Amino acid sequence: MRPLTLTRLLLRCGILAAILFTVVVLALKLGAVQVSLYGLTRDLIQVLLGHSNNISSDYVLIVLNIRLPRILLAIAVGASLSVAGVSFQALLRNPLADPYVLGISTGAAVGSIIALIVENQLNLAPEYAGLITPFGAFLGAALTIAAVYLLGRRDGQVDSNTLLLGGIITASFLAAVVTFLMSTLAGSNLRGASYWLMGSLSTLPPKSLLYLLAVGFLLAAGAIYTTASDLNLLLAGEKEAMHLGVDVPRVRIVVYLAASILTGLAVSVSGAIGYVGLLVPHVMRLIFGSDHRMLLPASALGGAIALVLADTVARTLVAPSELSVGAVTAMVGAPFFIYLLRRRIA
Amino acid sequence: MSSALRHPLPGDASRATPDVRLSVEQVSYAYAPNPSQAPLFTLEAMSFQAKPGELVAILGPNASGKSTLLKLISGALEPLSGRIFLNGFETHSLPVKTRAQRIALVQQESRLLFPARAWEFVMQGRHPYGGGLRFESEEDILIANNALAQVGATQLADRWMDKISGGEKQRIILARALAQQPLLLLLDEPTLHLDIGAQVDLLESLRRLAAQNRYTVVVVTHELNLAGEYADQVVLLQRGKCLRVGPPATVLQREILEQVFQAPLTVEITPSGRPRVTLFSNK
Predict the structure, then answer these.
(1) Measured between CB atoms, does A293 come within 8 Å of chain B?
(2) Taking CB atoms and an 8 Å limit, are B144 and A1 in contact across chains?
(3) Which of B86, B110, B162, B196 is deepest in the core (most CB within 10 A)?
């Protein structure tokens, strides 16, 4: 008997954070323009010491102003999607739940697009302009998950297969709505349909939105983390959890809202990037077990690592052109989904 | 007296008489899929009481209301009328966490979504004593180990829950309930899917645990003879009606059992004063 201790939790998170740091340095180095590892380290130290004027302006432009913000965006989006994935898996008691597979991300994309159209009509001051989008995305995510949940219910119980099928149909319907909106109502400044449907980290959102993303992630993931032990019991079933002292309705509403916020925020800045919320939690479960006190922070860090890696591949594989990051995650994620599905049926 | 020391519960003296722990008072229930329809199932008003250390068996044919009665006692359902008291507190109005510290429910085996080890499962029983983010203390580990030892499953601690037998799993689920340190232990058909040896083992350990830890144990079961052999009180239900309550020998009698179960049978009293029911074919 070896229950999780705070020391072990911090140690494991420390190792993951070190891997994340290594991946970030690698991602800073790689790209269409070559940067030496030595030069990079030297310059990063200069920046940390506050001597940023000693660095050549090419480096500043490419490494610090283009690559670094994009990597930070990948970290925030990857962590959000993974934590959302863990949350939906526990909430719906379905190991195959993922914001993308269930159509929640596409719902958030529809919400974002509608919010963008509304924003264009409102003539807001530029500093507030971007802020309606994440709210629209949150509403889109929250409504979609509610709809999928209702579709997945049969005789008052959530049926795993009906839920998945309902989610996939919803995703396909909402993708059609995205295409419709893009080709009729939207102006030219709304990015393409492929951005929303596949996801991309190539356009950096306004600073205000980035701050909102960071703060929103910390608050929503923090709220979910306060229910970590409850989620462990919720996996055994809602009635059983109740008899073990879990306030089920409260946990359900906290996790539902917070996971919708995470999905909404991530989609509003990067479109619907798929399978991160499925793949990362499963890999983390294999390594660390299914205790949510460990699984949630591990998935946040793992999601960040995975998306920084995926985006680096997307940037460099066909350089100087680039792939959509969602295409990279889907190429790895979709076969993994099939593997999980087969194993569950077997 | 010793039980009061083990579980000090301040402020509950008003209704509790010293040796009554569970008191079911004129409790009834009706289930309807929606409020406008006539109820599909009703439980007529019934009453009984149980003391610390007592084992109560709820018997009856399918759809007689056994599980509903157990859910009412557990506090998960609210009675339509009447009240259920545990040490003077109404079970339904206790906060979820407090309720889980006092009432443990062993249900027909739970399905796990992700693999877990037996000790992790038992440790879930400590959840009502901590918050969402609490880490298990030395005391929790001690209590969980003790619970495993009490059901004779210490050697199973590190095994995976999906790799052990039905009887072993049932013991682990019971150990989790013991880790809750309850006053009231409820079991819903715990002998289902167990072979006869495992059934006797389980009832023997319930009997022993009730005596040692002063639990009040309520078991829903189909096994007339196990109830006759091990229960202090038997509650006999038929179609939502409580026909008899009392010691096994006064409830398990031929006429009433034949009428309730619609099967010819004989009842003999063993040398220990326990009834033994034998079914026979009337062909």
Answers:
(1) yes
(2) yes
(3) B86
Please provide the size of chain B in residues: 283
Q: Could you report the predicted ipTM of this complex, rounded to two decimals?
A: 0.83
Whether A97 and A90 have beta carbons less than 8 Å apart is answered as: no
Number of inter-chain CB pairs under 8 A, A vs B: 86
Cα distance between residue A181 and residue B17, in whole Å: 71
Find the CATH number of the domain harbouring B168: 3.40.50.300
- B97: which chain A residues are within 8 Å (Cβ-Cβ)? 245, 247
pLDDT of residue A210: 86
**CA-closest candidate to residue A177, choices A81, A108, A75, A242:** A108
SS3 state of residue B27: strand
Chain B closest CA to A1's CA: distance in Å? Answer: 6
3-state secondary structure chain A: CCCCCHHHHHHHHHHHHHHHHHHHHHHHHCCCCCCCHHHHHHHHHHHHHCCHHHCCHHHHHHHHHHHHHHHHHHHHHHHHHHHHHHHHHHHCCCCCCCCCCCCHHHHHHHHHHHHHHHHHHHCCCHHHHCCHHHHHHHHHHHHHHHHHHHHCEECCEECHHHHHHHHHHHHHHHHHHHHHHHHHCCCHHHCCHHHHHHCCCCCCCCHHHHHHHHHHHHHHHHHHHCCHHHHHHHCCCHHHHHHCCCCHHHHHHHHHHHHHHHHHHHHHHHCCCCCHHHHHHHHHHHHHCCCHHHHHHHHHHHHHHHHHHHHHHHHHCCCCCCCCHHHHHHHHHHHHHHHHHHHHHC
Residue-wise pLDDT for B214-228, tens only, equals: 999 999 998 899 999
Domain of residue B104: give its range.
2-279
At A241-282, the pLDDT tens digits run: 999 999 999 999 999 999 999 999 999 899 899 899 999 999
Nearest alpha-carbon partner for B225 in B206, B248, B247 = B248
d(C-alpha A308, C-alpha B56), whole Å: 60
| Among the partner residues B114, B116, B136, nearest to A95 by beta-carbon distance | B114
pLDDT tens for A314-338 read: 988 887 788 889 989 999 888 888 8
Average pLDDT value over all residues in chain A: 86
A46: confidence class by pLDDT, cuts 50, 70, 90: confident
A239 touches chain B (CB under 8 A): yes
Q: Which among A5, A225, A229 is the nearest to B127, CB-wise?
A: A229
Which residues is B59 bridged to in the sheet? Answer: B236
Rounded-to-integer distance, Cα A210 and Cα A312, Å: 20
Q: Which domains does chain A have, with CATH numbers?
A: 70-345 (1.10.3470.10)
d(CA A87, CA A93): 9
A3/B141 CB distance under 8 A: yes
